[in-house]
Amino acid sequence: MDSNKPKVVHDLSPMMVVYEDGTIQRFLGNDLVPPSLDDPSLQVKSKDVVFSPENNLSSRIYLPKTISSDQKLPLLVYYHGGAFCIESPFSATYHAYLNKLVEEANIIAVSVDYRLVPEHPIPAAYEDSWAALKWVASHFNGEGSEEWLNNHADLNKVFLAGDSAGGNIAHYIAMRNSEEKLTGVDISGIVLVHPYFWGEVAVGDEVNNLEGRKKIESFWRYTHPNVGLDDPLINPECDPNLGRLGCSGSVLVIVAEKDILKDRGWWYYERLKKSGFKGNVEIMEAKEETHVFHLFKPTCENAIIMLKKIASFLNQMS
Which end of the chain has fewer CB atoms at under 10 Å, N or C? Predict the structure, then answer.
């Protein structure tokens, strides 16, 4: 054994490892790719735009190439997953997924970057994600800093979406918007893909998966050690204002049969329906699939079905 090798203090495999000397080794999300303004193989163009100069944060914006000069399209604000610790809107995985989704749904998308744990403890990720929506809202009168949004975004048809931790963030942003009510945007719908919710008391099949529960809980306790598993940030059931979710239309929850987070997705679906929320709530389950399978198997049948379902949802709501 190499005595000079630093000791592991947090093993969050397969995502990352943190060593005693402060070194962080991330295993996913490191394959960053540039935006694609002129790639002839794509039907979508993209570029990176700064939304938070003080924190050096950008969003990657996607626009269909077929759009006409005066055409307005629904806008999707997308929050990536990764347990608040890894990934980026600029990774090859998310760049490929947003290209496919924007092409399929014929929308504009803003894929949001946010600061990661442990360099930037929570609530940095939530604050950055809120700052991104505020930046989007600044374009409501056509005088914002980004021409694609000024010219083509219909801010009366704004959608929030995210997978895993990004689904958690999308829910949080909608709840915050119900309280602070940003001028200039109407959240018409929300898509939560395999959302990262949890709680102190096991639900569904969680009772038979103690090892899985321990793993999921370790991620949350690491990212937010001062907040328990029944805080509304991770357990929406504990939020007395759940029924005020800031969305004027529908919510689509997507789960995967073999994902340990599946029962939390179903639980959220049931609780939201009973909360007094005035919109419609839908749920979709992919059989025989695991957590965020669509990102790693984008051409499989279930991933294609899911992509088309999300695109249909966005278009129906708009």
Answer: N
